[in-house]
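Input (structure):
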């Protein structure tokens, strides 16, 4: 049932601000907040505040009055929640109070749920002043991460109450007995008690003192005293209290899943230290690892140094009860069997023994261990305080392995196969995860080679270091599987199976790996032995293919006649196999039935120049009904593919093949022809290759094998050289290496290549017919708008230059600041060029020579030409429209002018005109187009010229000009 309470935020704030009465101020001892997400699509959580109150006479009235507790949900809302339960413990001196509410969050996120209570009980020594510790509020919080990937998630619950007693001078330990129903990993760390600042806001209590400040030494007398928590087990130990009294401290339990922290709980607990002669009892834990389905019967023993009776109790998820001994909520239980602590909770004479009894089952297997917190307290005489000790029974419960795995060879329509069988898996389950279902799966692994694994009963899964690869997953109900994936004959295959149990959180997990099933496929098919290129041609290529008869098959084993079907695919690793030959055979001795010369066909030419080809052979036998049935197929074997990379006076060869045998650690032969693809070919070297599937050789022209003649000579960039290689190989499988004659020799196709030559020609020497400005008259270049630069160069030579020049490249830049760009390519032997249609002669040039190999020389010397500018103005003009001297313009033949800017002033100094143009032609008008009257005007002209320097400043001309109108004509 969902709890809804109508209390306003104002009332909550008022509750936090009211000064507590005496009865309200001395009752809170310890507490924590836990949460459970409820099933369904909404983000709805059951939130429980568990608070421990002082029920002694001084605090009973305050505890009774604590009928409500405020809970802040971390999303900006809060609620005052009624008390839902009150159970008395420790001889009615304390009570466990529960405040439970259901809250729905709007969306994913991280939320800090907190609660503040008024107030702590009095007398806590490490919250000074102890006499006023009842003036400090009590605050705890829990952080949850709401994420769709977490599905239904619960925080851990603490099954051991946070109230204990200790003795001065004796080591004290406490364990919260935290249990996470989802199997998430838990980690522990110390924290400090908190108080509320204002409502939902909190702070660490600044006056808090570490407990070791109340210690003199450890229990064994050594120093200093320690106060710590084990991050893995949660054992919180103080070694050792040095002063009687009441102490509070806090710690955090972190919840982790798949390496991500998904929440944390703060527990604030209280310890009472007494100074008395009673000694604490002792209890021994254990760590066990068993297969799910095992009946656990573990004896637990405790003793007391004083010889007093002791009571042994257990806290943990498998017991399915909370710290009150009441059943856990159904969704936190571990079904179906409950663990029991036989004789637990009964006072016994020591040495006392109880039996932890748990009939486990498959659903309880998980990656994280189950921790049972064992607690023993003594039963001292009247007036003495009972002391406690803790220990942990850690139980690792793993899923059982798949049993009786076997493997045998078989055949399918797809080819060779291995049949796996195993016994029905005994530990399958279906687990509901949110709205969907997941089932136990069996993961099948395979690797080449058989390697025993040292059995480790508690090691689950299959470590990658063993070299196994997952090949498939099948439902746990399966008992067989046929493996057809890329199996090679003559290879041993090892199989193992691991079961994966699904579960919420970290529940479930992997089983122990099965025993090994190892099998070597028998040799029931032929074996490829040769794919060699006889002829290299685009249309009439030829390849010889050879194979063996089935090595493990005798003539009478299967029905005759038999048939080979040779299939071909294009490419080194081609898979587009088509049948190119069918050969019937009775496997009679001396019959040439395992060789075929492939010449292609009219519809399928064999282009050995452009392609490698891959072959395989299918083997058929005659079944009892008379039809041919495929028994097996060989591995594919390709021709050797040769490639070349020309370099400076050398050629680098590389070759490869995709074959079922190994060409590693063999001697390969390299052949070269200086006379073209028709030979003759000379063997020039032997290459021993190792450890690689791609092989290389650099030919510099040397012939290292002179038995067939010495053809050593430097390679020329003017010649083409043709090559072929012969590889040698052998099968690595010992049986095949014996049965198949080796080495397996195969030729590549013929490949021709021309070396490069990167030697540069010498740079030419460049000359330019430039203008002589001093010799030009004012009328020179009059009215000329197009110009030509004439260039000539002279080739040069040197001992380190390539003399084979086939052309030149001329580079041009308009300005001296430019990087010249290629202007034109000129074939040799021409050594001149006229750069015409120029608007100015200004510009820079250099030329390079180009060798027959396409190598360009360094630049020649750089030559530049500059313009000879000229601009002269008159001092009178007559804008009267008679077509003579109508504009103010430069006198005859302005040269290399790019632009002109004019500013005109009248005799009063006022600007009457301003403009710019490519050339000056002012008609004697003002800037607004009005004719100016006759008279004297002053001008400033800025002229920019098309010269070599891009940054050359404009020439500024200043003077006067007379405007004459009204019938005046000037000739």
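Output (sequence):
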């Amino acid at each position: 049932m969902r709890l809804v309470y109508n209390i306003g935020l104002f009332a909550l704030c008022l509750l936090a601000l009211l000064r507590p009465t005496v009865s309200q101020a001395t009752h809170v001892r310890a507490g924590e907040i836990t949460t459970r997400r409820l099933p369904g699509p909404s983000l709805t959580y059951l939130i429980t505040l568990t608070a421990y109150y002082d029920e002694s006479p001084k605090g009973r009235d305050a505890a009774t009055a604590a009928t409500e507790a405020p809970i802040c949900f971390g999303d900006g809302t809060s609620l005052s929640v009624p008390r839902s339960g009150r159970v008395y413990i420790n001889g009615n001196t304390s009570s466990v109070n529960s405040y439970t509410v259901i809250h729905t969050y709007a969306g994913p996120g991280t939320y800090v749920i907190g609660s503040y209570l008024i107030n702590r009980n009095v007398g806590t020594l490490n919250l000074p002043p102890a006499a006023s510790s009842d003036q400090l509020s009590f605050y705890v919080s829990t952080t949850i991460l709401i994420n769709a990937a977490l599905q239904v998630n619960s925080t851990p619950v603490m099954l051991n109450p946070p109230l204990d007693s200790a003795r001065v001078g004796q080591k004290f330990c406490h364990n919260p007995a935290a249990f996470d129903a989802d199997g998430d990993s838990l980690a522990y760390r110390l924290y400090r008690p908190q108080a509320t600042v204002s409502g939902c806001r909190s702070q660490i209590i600044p006056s808090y003192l570490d407990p070791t400040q109340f210690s003199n030494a450890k229990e064994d007398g050594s120093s200093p005293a320690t106060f710590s928590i084990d991050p893995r087990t949660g054992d919180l130990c103080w070694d050792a209290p040095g002063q009687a009294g009441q102490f509070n401290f806090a710690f955090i339990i972190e919840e982790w899943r798949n390496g991500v922290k998904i929440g944390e709980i703060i527990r604030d607990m209280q310890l009472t230290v007494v100074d008395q002669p009673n000694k604490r009892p002792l209890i021994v834990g254990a760590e066990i690892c068993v297969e799910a389905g095992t009946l656990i019967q573990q004896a637990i023993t405790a003793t007391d140094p004083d010889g007093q009776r002791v009571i042994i109790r257990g806290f943990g998820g498998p017991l399915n009860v909370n710290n009150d001994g009441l059943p856990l909520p159904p969704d936190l239980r571990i079904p179906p069997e409950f663990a029991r602590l036989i004789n637990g909770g009964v006072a016994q004479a020591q040495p006392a023994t109880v039996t932890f009894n748990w009939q486990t089952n498959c659903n309880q297997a998980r990656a994280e261990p189950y921790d049972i917190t064992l607690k023993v307290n003594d039963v001292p005489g009247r007036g003495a305080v009972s002391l406690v000790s803790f220990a942990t029974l850690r139980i690792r419960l793993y899923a059982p392995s798949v049993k009786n795995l076997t493997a045998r060879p078989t055949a399918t329509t797809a080819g060779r196969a291995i049949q796996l069988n195993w016994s029905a898996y005994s530990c399958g389950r279906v687990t509901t995860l949110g709205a969907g279902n997941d089932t136990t799966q069996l993961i099948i692994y395979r690797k080449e080679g058989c390697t025993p694994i040292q059995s480790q009963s508690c090691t689950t899964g299959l470590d990658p270091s063993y070299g196994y690869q997952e090949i498939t997953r099948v439902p746990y109900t399966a008992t067989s599987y046929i493996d057809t994936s890329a199996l090679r004959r003559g290879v041993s295959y090892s199989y193992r199976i691991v079961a994966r149990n699904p579960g919420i959180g970290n529940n479930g997990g992997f089983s122990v790996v099965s025993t090994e099933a190892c099998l070597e496929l028998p040799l029931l098919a032929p074996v490829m032995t040769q794919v060699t290129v006889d002829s290299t041609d685009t249309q009439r290529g030829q390849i010889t293919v050879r194979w063996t008869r089935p090595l493990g098959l005798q003539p009478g084993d299967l029905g005759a006649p038999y048939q080979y079907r040779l299939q071909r695919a294009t490419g080194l690793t081609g898979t587009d196999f088509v049948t190119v030959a069918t050969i019937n055979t009775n496997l009679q001795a001396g019959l040439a039935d395992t060789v075929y010369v492939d010449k292609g066909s009219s519809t399928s030419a064999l282009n050995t120049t452009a392609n490698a080809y891959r072959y395989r052979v299918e083997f058929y036998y005659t079944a009892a009904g008379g039809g041919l049935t495929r028994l097996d197929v060989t591995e594919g074997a390709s021709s050797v593919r040769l490639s070349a990379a020309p370099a400076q006076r050398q050629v680098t060869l590389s070759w490869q093949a995709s074959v079922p045998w190994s060409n590693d650690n063999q001697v390969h032969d390299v052949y070269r022809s200086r006379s073209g693809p028709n030979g003759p070919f000379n063997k020039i070297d032997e290459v021993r290759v190792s450890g690689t599937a791609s092989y290389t050789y650099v030919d510099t022209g040397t012939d290292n094998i002179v038995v067939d003649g010495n053809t050593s000579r430097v390679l020329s960039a003017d010649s083409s050289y043709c090559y072929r290689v012969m590889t040698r190989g052998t099968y690595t499988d010992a049986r095949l290496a014996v049965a198949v004659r080796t080495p397996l020799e195969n030729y590549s196709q013929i490949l021709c290549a021309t070396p490069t030559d990167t030697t540069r020609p010498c740079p030419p020497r460049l000359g330019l017919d430039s203008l002589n400005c001093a010799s030009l008259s004012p009328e020179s270049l009059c009215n000329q708008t197009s110009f030509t630069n004439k260039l000539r160069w002279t080739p040069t030579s040197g001992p380190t230059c390539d003399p084979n020049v086939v052309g030149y490249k001329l580079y041009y830049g308009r300005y001296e600041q430019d990087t010249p760009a290629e202007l034109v390519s000129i074939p040799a032997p021409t050594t001149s060029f006229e750069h015409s249609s120029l608007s100015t002669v200004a510009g820079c040039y250099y030329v390079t020579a180009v060798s027959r190999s396409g190598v360009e020389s360094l630049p020649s010397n750089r030559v530049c030409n500059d313009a000879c500018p000229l601009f002269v103005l008159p001092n009178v003009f007559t804008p009267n429209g008679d077509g003579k001297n109508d504009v103010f313009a430069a006198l005859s033949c302005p040269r290399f002018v790019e632009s002109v800017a004019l500013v005109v002033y009248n005799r009063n100094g006022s600007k009457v005109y301003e403009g710019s143009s490519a050339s000056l032609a002012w008609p004697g008008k003002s800037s607004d187009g009005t004719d100016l009257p006759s008279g004297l005007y002053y001008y400033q002209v800025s002229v920019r010229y098309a010269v070599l320097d891009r940054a050359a400043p404009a020439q500024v001309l200043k003077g006067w000009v007379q405007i004459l109108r009204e019938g005046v004509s000037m000739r």
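Notes: Residues 254 and 264 are 4 Å apart (CA to CA). The first strand starts at residue 28 and ends at 37.
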